[in-house]
Amino acid sequence: MRSERSTILEVGVDSVFHTILIFSIFLLIVGHNSPGGGFVGGLVAGAALVLRYVSGGQEEVRRFVPFEPETLFAVGILAATITGIVPAIAGATFLESEIWETDVPVLGTVKLSSTLFFDCGVYLVVVGLVLMILGVLGATEEEGDEPDEGEALVDGPAVDGAGSDTAGADAGGEDRS
Fold this sequence. Notes:
- By secondary structure, the protein is mainly alpha-helical.
- The protein has one domain (7-137).
- 53% of the residues lie in helices and 7% in strands.
- Strands 1-2 form a two-stranded antiparallel sheet.
- Helix 2 packs parallel to helix 5.
- The radius of gyration is 25 Å and the shape is flat.
- It starts with 6 loop residues before the first helix and ends in a 40-residue tail after the last helix.
């Protein structure tokens, strides 16, 4: 479908794509203590995927994301739901967070919050949704497909109920053809 590809665009996207993805993961990780989180990180990752789509089309996006968008979306919903339900089952309130601390030899004290798991779910939902939208944008109608109900069967001038051409007639009923 695409006849020419922009070398400048492809090189530009190649040079920033991985950096944008790493930045989105940074936003995901620091989101519960600073601005960011799963939604913002997912939007930034989605923007990187949109750049990849603009550069190389649907095939290029599929090359970098081997998962089906619906799978990412479903896993994200599942992760976010489980993160909310587990505290409720344990006797706490729905979505109550817990913080775990551990000492790592090189890094020092590392804190892990249960909100990170919720944010990971939101991140996957947003990325899956962006991929689904790109899939719809990149979809092509297969030859031989029947048109959906409400779609015109033929392209051309409008035809009224009597079968006459109404495209050339103006409001006064005069035919200008």
